[in-house]
Amino acid sequence: MSYNNYLDADAAWNYPVSAFGGIVAFNIEVDEDLAKEIREFRSPTDGETRMFYEIVVAPKYSKKGLEILRGKSKTLRILEASKNKKGKLSLRQVGGGWLAQDSDDLTPEDIGFNLVSKKTPQENELSVAKFAWLCVKHVKSNAIVIAKGKCMLGMGSGQPNRLESLRIALRKAGDEGKGAALASDAFFPFAWKDAVEEACESGIGVSIRHWRRRDGSGQVIVGEVQHFDFAKVSDFRRTYEIQILTLFTL
Fold first, then answer.
1. CA 147, CA 125: separation in Å to the nearest integer?
2. C-alpha 241 chain-centroid distance
3. Exposure pattern of 166-196 as b/e (b: 16+ CB <10 Å)?
4. Is 147 within 8 Å of 183 (Cβ atoms)?
5. CA 50, CA 86: separation in Å to the nearest integer?
6. Could you give a GO molecular-function term held by this entry (predicted)?
7. Contact 186/180 with Cβ under 8 angstroms?
8. What pTM was estimated for this model as a whole?
């Protein structure tokens, strides 16, 4: 559940088909009110069918909340998982061994913005941009996430190129994508006749991607595109830089 108000279950509208039989995860305690919302929430597809979930996972459950969830379904698996701690190693199996690296445990407070555009994004736009950037790290590359109001509207993942991932994410987001934030887990190699142009035409408001320089000159690859303003982001945990591309029509 991605909303600050966890009783607001609009997140399920983004993928109503996938939500049925899905997993609901929380980073707060599931109390009585929240458990009732989970139990009684109706499918967005017809507004009548009670939603079916395979798993509910949270760091903690109140006694009453746990009792309510246990009465929802005999097959519902209720898991308790402690919150991730910062500074742990992340292990990934690779051919012939294991890859050990720092865990990607950034929080919005860890992401700082150094604006360099003439037109400054609004505070709420930067807040949504941070949220989108945190979401995209969980999506399989090539990864694109479109978010608005602390809710992920669409994602494109696992495609052979970034443009196809963008088109999938835009299709999922629909009209809600206008003015939304877009996050990419890698740079866009071209501006026109590619993902940047299609994002602009679709009304995306803010785009986040890795910072990329050209020919060592310090120029941004799409720095000469006159339809966009730019803002640079410093990710204090990593050595690379990320770019916020604010897609305002001049």
1. 10
2. 19
3. bbbbbebbeebbeebbbbbbebbeebeebbb
4. yes
5. 37
6. phosphoribosylaminoimidazolecarboxamide formyltransferase activity
7. no
8. 0.68
